[in-house]
Amino acid sequence: MQYLHTMVRVRDLEKSLDFYCNKLGLEEVNRYDVEAGRFTLVFLAAPNDIERAKEKDGPMVELTYNWDPEEYDGGRNFGHLAYLVDDIYASCQKLMDAGVAINRPPRDGHMAFVRSPDGISIELLQRGEALGPQEPWSSMENTGSW
Ligand SMILES: C[C@@H](O)C(=O)SC[C@H](NC(=O)CC[C@H](N)C(=O)O)C(=O)NCC(=O)O
Ligand code: NI
């Protein structure tokens, strides 16, 4: 078994593509307009994953846009999408310059959070840093349950 994608439903497809592609840096891999179901699917991949994603063998985000408006309550059970970045400060600066609020700034040079137009939380992690939890759980032994 292999991880393939995470699907998120979006209220405004253009606003979402502007955030995920123009600001966060993902690239569009595939798009399906489904008349019968009245929805559009847009598959996005990070630059490092794009070649594998084109072969349907790489991790992606699947944006689902329902043409008929629906209410999407913020399911607490969904946490975030996480991306590894080469320079977390440069990534956050680029996002801030594009008008994106940094909900959790990278004080520790390790982890930052921003949100999509639909409030989907996006975690940015500095490449080379430990992937474990930081403050305030830094003293917690990673028992795999955090
Ligand atoms: C292409 C493949 O990766 C899919 O995920 S298609 C799954 C399918 N999606 C839809 O029907 C989109 C429109 C629908 N109104 C919706 O909002 O999901 C599907 O079965 N969706 C149901 C689900 O729970 O994901
Ligand atoms: Ni899917």
Automatic annotation (TrEMBL):
UniProt superkingdom: Bacteria
Keywords: Metal-binding
Signal peptide per UniProt: none
Matches recorded under Pfam families: Glyoxalase
Domain VOC: 2-127
Protein's name in the database: VOC family protein
